[in-house]
Amino acid sequence: MRRRLSDLARGAVTYGADVLASANGDLRAALLLNEYRDRREYYAQRARSLGLHYSDGLVAERTRERLSARGLSIEPRRLGEIHTLAFVPLLSWHSQLLRPLQALGPLSHFDNVACGLDHAALLRRDPTAIAARQTACDAFLDYATEVSRQRKIDWVFTYASAVELLADTVDQVRKITGAPVVGMCFDDKQSWDGEMFGGQRGGQLPLASRLDLAWTSARIACLWYMAEGGNPIYLPEGCDTDRYSPAPEPQDVDVCFVGQAYGFRRVFIDKLRRLGLPVRTAGAGWPGGLVTDDEMVRLFRRSKIILGLGGIGWSPDLKNVKARDFDGPAVGTAVYLTSYNPELAEHFDIGKEIGCFSSADECVEVAQDLLANQGRRQSIAQRGRERCLRAHTWVGRFERVLEVLGVLGDGADSRAKAMRSQ
Question: Between 20 and 30 A from 118 (CA), which of 183, 250, 303, 409?
C-alpha cells in the first residue's frame, strides 16, 4: 500500500510538471498563432482589394513581364552552361546546395561567413554586427563585379533574409550583373517581418519587392509577396538523394528524431515516450547533443521510422513544409512519419509514400502498426525514395526556377521535365 501511494505521489508530481509545461507551451503557441492570424487576415484583405491571385501557371508570364520592365535581357542556356552567382552563407545544411548548383554549370559562390560575419551577433541584434553586415554586402558586390568581368552571370541566387542581406544590395547586384536575382526562403510564416536593425527590418519583407523572383515554401505567403509588389513562386525544399540514400545498416532503432529541442518539440516527444513509443533523439538541446551530417544519415539508415514534426516554434498547429520532409523519405529504408500538412499532400501520396498523424496518440498508433509490419514499412520507404528521385531533387527545383526565368532553354533537359510531370 505504501509503495502504491509513493507511485501515486510521483505520478502526481510528474502530472503537475506536465500541466505547467503544457500551459506555458499553450500560451506561447497562442501568441504565435494569433500574430500569424493577424498577418494572414491583413494580407487576405489587401489581396482582395488589389484583385490579386496566385497561380503556378501564371508565374512564368508574370516573371517575363517583370524582367522586361526592369530591362533585363535573358539569354537561354543549356544545362551545364548556366553560370550562377550564389549568396549562400555556409551554415547548418546549406553546403548541400552547392553541388546541385554546380550541376547547372559554373558556380561563383560568395559566403559572408568567410568574410567574418558573425551570424549569432546578427540574430541577437548586436550593434557591432551592423557595420560587419555592410562590409559583407560590399564585399559581395565587389565579388560580383570581378566575376562578371570574367564570365557573364546568368542568374543570382540568394539564400538569406534581410537580417544579413541589404535590400539595396539586391538592386546593386542586379545592376552590376544584368542578371535576375532570386531569393529563397523556407520560413516565411514565422520570419516574414522583423524588428528594425541598422536601418532595415528583418525577415523577408524588405526584400519582397526587390527580388525578381521570390521562392517560398509557404503557398499562402505568395499573396504576401504579391501584395508587397513581389513576384513569388511556390516551391518546397529539395533533397540530396545521394547523401540521403539507402546503405546496409542494422535497423536497431525503432523511431528517431533529429532536430533542435525547442518550442513544442520536447513536450510532444516526452508525451510519445509516456504513451509507449521509444523515440531516440539527437540535436541541440537533447541529451545526446549535436550530431554531424554523416552521423545523422547513419542514424536515419539504422531507424525503422524517421519522425518529423511539421509545427513552427511553439505551435504544432502552424505548419510549414520542411527540408526533413524530403530528406527523410529519400533515405529509402525507413518510413518517414510526420505531422499532417495539406501542402505536404501535394508532394507525396500519404499512406503509400510517407505516413502522417494529427495528434500524439495517432502518431503512436501509426508507428506501432508500422513497426509490427515490416513488409508494409519497407514498401512505403521504397516508394518514398522513388518519389524523391523522380520529383524532389534540388537540381529539379533549380531547373524549375531557371525555366521560369527563361534562363534554361527549351529542350535543355527534357528527361527531367518529363519526370517532374509524372
Answer: 183
